[in-house]
Amino acid sequence: MSYKISNADFFKKPLDSSDLKNESQSAPPHSETESVKAKPYEQMRAGGFRLHEHTRQTVTECAEALKSIGMHNLSNEVKNVLNRVAHERFTVAVVGEFNRGKSSFLNNFLERECLPVGILPTTAIPTRIRYSPYEKMAAFDEKNQKTLERALSSDMWDGLVAQNFGETSFQGNAILGLNNAWLQEYGVELMDTPGAGDLDDRRSKQLGDALLGCDGVIIAIEAPSPLSMSEKLFIEERLIARKMPYMMVIVTKLDVIRKEERAKVLRYLRSKISEWNLEIP
């Protein structure tokens, strides 16, 4: 389930106090002391407005009932919608097959090396990147229980990257809180995802579940092999068929293509994308 933004210009300007007038009148009061006392990972997970506890409990019980009768996908979708309503963020996932430069793109966009990169599939779990005054990384298991919390460092991803030779990979998701001015100003949450062409079924399922709660996607396609058959199927079946309201294509690894050939690669991609006749921003 996605919500289409009718006024995209809203994201081009910082929030004004008047924008929050109605929300502040209806939101329950909370003290500054409570905010200061909250643990860092709780601050990272904190959202915009608070749902009535009875509403939250009712929807949670519905999700659990669906799960108990075997409707796991629908149960996950209900939970994702509940989380989105509670957090009120605009979530953009960076997707693509493995080794397409998704994590490298996010590191460059955020102007810091905060995500693991490598030649083999590296991103094992969906990693949400959001603003936090406390810079922390927290990992949560499949039951959404926090299992660890680490300060930002070169070894903070130990045990959380993809294992490729029969070893057991961590199952769950991670939240990376960064004190980033752009994330703070626009309230956007970015998400790094496992490779769409990863042969690990569990990571493939994690990607599908993560996309349920996204408002938009950035599709990473590498210049040396642009828009393969598997990439076309992924875009058509996972994104277009689900009516993802906002999609963007980025071309990575263009530097390995000879300069005189780069324009040809971009023209090819434009022609293939135009064949879908997509009426989206």
Can you offer a commentary on this structure?
- The protein contains ten helices and eight strands.
- With 281 residues, it is α/β, with parallel strands linked by helices.
- An eight-stranded mixed β-sheet has the order 4-3-5-2-6-1-7-8, sandwiched between helices.
- Helix 9 (229-240) links the parallel strand 7 and strand 8.
- Helix 4 (53-68) runs antiparallel to helix 5.
- The longest helix has 16 residues, at 53-68.
- The chain is globular and about 60 Å long.
- Mean pLDDT is 76; it is low at 15-50.
DSSP strand tally: 8
Helix content: 25-40%
Main beta-sheet strand count, sense and barrel state: 8 strands, mixed
Q: How large a portion of the residues is in β-strands, by DSSP E?
A: 15-25%
Pattern of helices and strands: HHHHHEHEEEEHEHEHEH
Class derived from helix and strand content: alpha/beta
Global geometry: globular
| Strand order, sheet with most strands | 4-3-5-2-6-1-7-8
Q: What do the pLDDT scores average to?
A: 76
Low-confidence runs of at least 5 consecutive residues: 15-50
Supply Rg. Answer: 20 Å
Report the span from N to C terminus.
18 Å
What's the quaternary structure here? Answer: single chain
Number of helices: 10
